[in-house]
Design brief:
OB fold (Dihydrolipoamide Acetyltransferase, E2P); alpha+beta; elongated; single chain
Length: 344
Amino acid sequence: MTIRTAEMCLILALAAPSAVTARVSIPAWIPILYADSSVVCRGNVVSDTTEENPGELKDGHLVPHDYLVVLKIRYCYKGEAPGGELKLFMPGRDPMGGSMRAGEGLVVFAKAVAGGQYIVTNPDDSIYGEEPFGDLPKGAHDNESGLEEIEHGLLSTAMTPDSPASQRAMELLLRFPRLGEKSIQTLLAMPATSDPEMTMLRLVMLARGNPESYLAELMQAAKRRDPDSAGRWNGEISELLANRSTAKQLDLLREAVRSEVAILRSGGMSGLRRIKDPSTLPFLVEQLDSKDPEIQRMAVYTLHEMQPLAADCRSNAIQHEHAPGLLKQLWKRCLLELGFSEVK
């Protein structure tokens, strides 16, 4: 029998070809998962069984079956598990994921259904290995909600030097839209680390809470990495830049567009498109010559959306695709008429 960890089991079940339908895993915000769940509990696998044949094939693929996972519960962040046991019904699970290991520690977000059973709250994203969640919480006498206990447990693991679960804990903390003040203060006191991934994750979380103070530092850290490197934080940086909404961040956004790092370029242009400040018109026209086709395209659309501008100054994607040089000349003439100095 193939034995997998819970997270690997779920990932494989979602990624493997299915005779029913393909499913894409979309991580949810942990506070939303928490609010939508009847119980959020921590325990160990007692059994993981199906009454059907796990090796059954259809059209060359293993057929998904219904599984019942029984957990011995040690602690609940939310709700209760009567008798200290949770029966988790998992319909249509792909056998390619293998079986969960007896004794494996899990944190589960689940909803109650008929017959005293539960189903996962989000079929794509509700079961985790318990290692990143830190030690068992001390209890309600600390005046913390269950959600706060989860957040602080993850942070405790993230702050543990050389812990194999520390990076996973930091990644899970990204699933909180914004951390509480206590967690922010803990992150600020976090000792320097030689792990670039941990540095990036920490700065992303600080920049979410206070972009004016930490976004520039985050950008500099991103520039020191391989421009083509991938990380859980890539999309977060781009989103932080794209969500800037005041003219105070224009210099930072222009700097991002000039970067060698693709996620900074696209995020910076998205931010400029969101703000649509007339002072950026010359800079946007310069980007019509960008070596990055995506930046060219975004510059075209941003110029097209700027108001108020004469109709003949507006650009469109077709013109840019077939005659980019002529389009730039048109915009240079229009900007001179609007009182701007010569554009490069």
